[in-house]
Amino acid sequence: MHQWFSARVILLWLQAVAVVAATSNSNQEIRAGLYGLERNHLEGRKTDHLQGKKCKAYPGDSDWPSSQQWQDFNETLEGALIKTVPEASRCYGNATTGDSPECQSLSETWGNSSLRIEDPSSIRSVLFQGMTCMPPAFAPNFFSINATGKACALGAYPEYVVNVTSVSQIQHAINFAREHDIRLVIKNTGHDFGAKSVGKGALSIWTHHLKEKSFNWYESKEYSGPSVKLGAGVQVHEAYALAKRHEVTLVGGEGKTVGHVGGYIQGGGHSPLTSIWGMAADHVLSIDLVTATGAFTTADPTTNADLFWAIRGGGGSTFGVVTSMVIKAFPQIKATTMRYSMSTGGNFTQDKFWEAQKAYVDNFEYYADLGYYSYYRIRHVNGQIFHDMTSWVAPNTSETVFRASIAPVVERWRSIGVPFEPIIREYDNFPDAWADGFPQEPWTWNMRQASRFFPRSVLSNNTTRAASFNAIREVFDAGANLIMFNMRNPPGSATIDNAVNPAWRDILMFAIMFVTWSPSDTPKYVTQLSRNLTYAWNPKWKALTPGSGTYMSESDYIEPDWQESFHGDKYPRLYEIKQKWDPEGVFYAQNAVGSEDWEMGETLLGHLPSQNSRLCRK
Ligand SMILES: Cc1cc2nc3c(=O)[nH]c(=O)nc-3n(C[C@H](O)[C@H](O)[C@H](O)COP(=O)(O)OP(=O)(O)OC[C@H]3O[C@@H](n4cnc5c(N)ncnc54)[C@H](O)[C@@H]3O)c2cc1C
Ligand SMILES: *[C@@H]1O[C@H](CO)[C@@H](O)[C@H](O)[C@H]1NC(C)=O
Ligand SMILES: *[C@@H]1O[C@H](CO)[C@@H](O)[C@H](O)[C@H]1NC(C)=O
Ligand SMILES: *[C@@H]1O[C@H](CO)[C@@H](O)[C@H](O)[C@H]1NC(C)=O
Ligand SMILES: *[C@@H]1O[C@H](CO)[C@@H](O)[C@H](O)[C@H]1NC(C)=O
Ligand SMILES: *[C@@H]1O[C@H](CO)[C@@H](O)[C@H](O)[C@H]1NC(C)=O
Ligand SMILES: *[C@@H]1O[C@H](CO)[C@@H](O)[C@H](O)[C@H]1NC(C)=O
Ligand SMILES: *[C@@H]1O[C@H](CO)[C@@H](O)[C@H](O)[C@H]1NC(C)=O
Ligand SMILES: *[C@@H]1O[C@H](CO)[C@@H](O)[C@H](O)[C@H]1NC(C)=O
Ligand SMILES: *[C@@H]1O[C@H](CO)[C@@H](O)[C@H](O)[C@H]1NC(C)=O
Ligand SMILES: *[C@@H]1O[C@H](CO)[C@@H](O)[C@H](O)[C@H]1NC(C)=O
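That's the FAD binding domain-containing protein sequence above. Prediction below.
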């Protein structure tokens, strides 16, 4: 179960196609990128095409703070400043080698988010960091970095991390970064698919230890009732444990170790409860944050209402550092979940598999309108299709009612001969249903994805639904794997006035395609896979869903027209609020609001902006 990390996904390696430009040219860029990774090369260097532009300060630049200034800074922080040592550096150097016990255990647990989260700078999506310090077994040949290669460099891991436990440390860190014009990043858990919590030469604010949490009665003009206050470091499993203790329900993610009020709520993330209660961001009552000037302030419907609007869905690392949020709590509800997995093979052919899938997708509107949510995967494993329903969740629904609702699809599957042995169970509270239904997922470091929403208008029409289904199968057959969600937003959600992507409000399906590779793959192969996602496969889905969008936190790193895809018609207002609150660009992240005013000097594989390069104003 849940073997994203260890399962070697087999993809057919066919001949190169014209659409992918993996020429000797891009090999040169790869090499340039590689040697650029070594610190000595980078010091004091600006790449040619960025000459004369206003870049952030980097180590070796004349405007980089002196060691005395760093030391003084550490004193104002009461010693909370950490010089980054990449976790995998223990695998390199004189004392240890790739087969030392410390290194072995790191390799074995590299995909375990619980452990990586405890490190000040480790992240999931290391590709964009440059993969400059990997356990040797995972060192990518395609960047010409491997065990026998050049060992361990800092890459895009930040120079320094502030292990914050107080608001004043956050204020000091923002002020220091702003005054010295240093790139500032915020790491909470490091889950982000876009590696948004690293940056070359950065100072990082690490919010993981801001674990304040309490259950309170909230009174305001808009809402009077139970609520929770959650510090920036509180994770989904901790938030649900609090909810369970107080016999309430919180709208939160399925991912166990994700940060509840970090990138998840700020990015407008989805929940197993979205079909009945909408987005988690819809239930935020008040936000405390430190802004780009270093001011500690509150955003709610009456104070800084523009920030309050923008932070609820406009994206992390954009408007300030959130220190805590107050969030509405719902009454306790029962829930029923169903899990199963199946694999093609023998008389269960791939055609039969897709026929069965179609029977389910044909009923997406029905299930979403019952308030259900499902999250499942369809992957290539050893030449077969492996499909696992992580969980199909029926909130506020008894097992009896749930079984009756799925009976027509189950009957159809039986007639097709689907090997279907589900585990179905009713729980009297959501946190328990979630705990069983959503075991901790591994951090898949060798993965890149793209995604798209499929709106109701497309899926309720027999013709366009069939076309969508075919396009999903087509992308799978071409070599991608799939992560699928069936959900809706409940009636009335479209009028909620926050920065959640308006395209979320009328979806019935959210589909993610992903590719994986192995460390021994060639640059040409990985480049083709990556370019296929963006330039060949996702456009097929986009063509069928004009005017829709996707979820920023689970999207293509280089999503074309990302402003439109992530924010729709809300983008101009978000950009205006960004200019008002952060005109100098203290906060930056890949494809965050306002990031189009900046560029990075180098690319990985010839087409992916490298976080391991200078960030400069355009
Ligand atoms: C295994 C897994 C499961 C997931 N499950 C779900 C799910 O169920 N639903 C869903 O919608 N998404 C899910 N996601 C996506 C997840 O919500 C995003 O990756 C999100 O960005 C993670 O936020 P974080 O704060 O935990 O991580 P980080 O990577 O540390 O931060 C993400 C972004 O938010 C910024 N940020 C973090 N904290 C703050 C803060 N206090 N103030 C300002 N900016 C901040 C960071 O700078 C960065 O830009 C999942 C991802 C993974 C890998
Ligand atoms: C900051 O100070 C603490 C306490 O003196 C020390 O342990 C730590 O190494 C210092 N950090 C840096 C980057 O020097
Ligand atoms: C490795 O050992 C050599 C020789 O003893 C020494 O000069 C060098 O500094 C050491 N390097 C590290 C990273 O410890
Ligand atoms: C990950 O590590 C944590 C902490 O050591 C452990 O409790 C958990 O079981 C591990 N998870 C997996 C999937 O191995
Ligand atoms: C490691 O990288 C070097 C340099 O690119 C290459 O020659 C060698 O074959 C690689 N080794 C492995 C095991 O992939
Ligand atoms: C960060 O701070 C917390 C709280 O003080 C402490 O428990 C933890 O050990 C620190 N982590 C590191 C890596 O310094
Ligand atoms: C949950 O179900 C009860 C009774 O079936 C119903 O009254 C209530 O409105 C439902 N709640 C939600 C949020 O759908
Ligand atoms: C495959 O064979 C098994 C055993 O004979 C049978 O139960 C199942 O229905 C068949 N499935 C298909 C898809 O024909
Ligand atoms: C379904 O979509 C097709 C293709 O866009 C369109 O021609 C047709 O009119 C639609 N059918 C209905 C019932 O709306
Ligand atoms: C759509 O397909 C269903 C099932 O095949 C059929 O019952 C329905 O009449 C079709 N709707 C339209 C508008 O063609
Ligand atoms: C890219 O897509 C094309 C067309 O589907 C396919 O032929 C090729 O094998 C793909 N390349 C990779 C590396 O997946």
